Amino acid sequence: MSKESYKNKMDSIKRDIARKRAEITSWNDKIKDCQAKKKQQREYYSKLIKAARDSSSKASHRSTMNSSLKSIDYSIASYRSNIANIKRGIESLQTALKNTQEAYKKVK
Prior knowledge:
By secondary structure, this protein is mainly α. It is built from two helices and no strands. It has one domain (3-106). It is rod-shaped and about 85 Å long.
């Protein structure tokens, strides 16, 4: 390959890495949103549980709260898994970039 081809390939890899880092930021924002929602849900259901007059209502609200919080936890776990996969992708792109840079240096 020519020097220009290597240069274009390196630029492309750098853009891909930047795009993947932006994806990680997006997933982290979603995690923060979920954590805020989880806190809000916990506060909401805690008020309902305190206001409930009988034990069956309290149990029902508690069960609904636990289901809601569990659902949010699953979403957060899924987002973290996505982030881990993206990080592995970035690592392989960085390896490809390093190899391309070494090949670029060898071309005259």
